[in-house]
Amino acid sequence: MNPPTPSPVQLAAIKTAVFLLCLLPAVLLARGWFANALGANPVEAVQHATGSWALNMLLISLAVTPLRRLTGLHWLIRLRRMLGLFAFAWACAHLLNWIWLDLWFDWRAIGADILDRPYVSVGFAAFVLMLPLAATSTQSAMRRLGGRRWQALHRSAYVVAILGVAHFWWLVKADVLEPLLYALALAALLGARMWQRELERRRQLAAPPPLPGTPPKGRVIRIVPK
Amino acid sequence: MLIRRPADIAPSEITARELFEGRREFIRRAGLGLAAGAALWHGLPAPARAADALPRTVPGPFSIGEPLTKLESAISYNNFYEFGVTKSGPERNAHRMQVRPWTLRVEGLVCKPREFGIEELLKLAPMEERIYRLRCVEAWSMVIPWAGYPLAALLKAVEPLGSAKYVEFVTHYDPAIMNTRQVIEWPYHEGLRLDEALHPLTLLTFGMYGELLPNQNGAPVRIVVPWKYGFKSAKSIVTLRLLEEQPATAWIKQAPQEYGFYANVNPEVSHPRWNQATERRIGEQRRRPTLMFNGYAEQVAQLYQGMDLHKHY
Ligand code: HEM
Q1: Where are the domains of chain B?
Q2: The pTM is what?
Q3: Any stretches that span the bilayer, and where are they (chain A) (predicted)?
């Protein structure tokens, strides 16, 4: 039995709902800022909230593929670009807060921090790696690059996530519990991906060779070399 | 904002404190009035000044003329990892700590090792109000009116031996009410060189903003060393030990490559995580430059004459 696929109208409704849901933490943060309700050090509160949400959205977007394989809900893939772009938007806010409200465009201090402080260097590297992903997130970019190359490029989202977790790990003073939880979640995502790939490899090995002359059904991702 | 050194400030210029004390007196009176009113209402004798209140304070030396940090910020934005590693955790959790009765043991290389009850400590020397900068290693700062007296007064009472070179502070740790995950080594240990501990700026502190210390700020007794990063100013101390050797401190054990024993505020020596050249004064929009020895160079620079502060950070 195939799980139900939403109609175009339903999908549009789902997308809108997910969009609004993703927007909610930003609305709450903005409200806290303007209501002066972010505590004694609001700039730091924004730095932490934007960083956490950048990483959350990144991991959520990386969870789409394993989840889709697990549940058979293939339409979930239609949400992935939006989730990834939310991660990017949070990272932009994170960087902007740091450059503007924290360091007030003190470019010398900004440059020195990027070069001297490993946790900033790593965060910055993560951000730079996000740029090509955001730039190639459109349908036309995907077409221009071709599916395979696009996929290879976008696999670097995992690298961004690894750098993001390393950044978090490096910046805590003593208690690594929170970055540890992120690291475990990321490891689970990577593990799921590898496991599903292994299953697909075995399936392809076990499958009888296609009859000559019959076109393959659906999209075949070759893992086993010919 | 113009930053003036303490020597530049004539006592008559420090209006902030006088205003603030006037307001505090008003609040105290209003509080007593309310309490008295309530007592009359219930037909009870009006309470005398609570035995537990902060003794009357006199203005002490070294106060600065910069605007005070809002009380609300000073009691809600704290590092006290035993009560949680977030800034807001201590305010939420520190009420669990019982601060009466409380004894402070003074031991080690002293002629007269003994325990002091908190009531006795409160009366050991005249209580002074001192408005100091507080600079955290995380590059934020506050201006706080503390109440206390020089640690030297307590040390004199126990007569350190000639062999004593360092003072170690051990703080309260009770796993029943505190974080049991060993984020850093507990009980928390800090320390000073004896001459630093005897310096007139080093304050044995019991109150702030004209009241007894709130628990999250280190009740009932803590150290305040204004020219060093905040983590040197141990909170809720239970033992003070005089030693010949430099004591191991909690943060040095946690990350020896990041924290030094001296931890003097120094804008020229960066921490691997934080640029120490500037700081965010809580409540202000922009960063301000960090001052050498947190602005107390005139008083303390001679303690470190001939030392390479890049090495002894
Ligand atoms: C553009 C370069 C980046 C810079 C300069 C930067 C800088 C910072 C700073 C200054 C903090 C606060 C550190 C502290 O309070 O001690 C922080 C926290 C954080 N950042 Fe970044 N970051 C960058 C990129 C990123 C990216 C791309 C991600 C995620 C993918 C990220 C995730 C986080 C997280 C999770 C935190 C901790 C939040 C918390 O404490 O709850 N950062 N970052």
Answers
A1: 11-304
A2: 0.85
A3: 12-33, 53-70, 82-100, 120-140, 152-170, 176-195
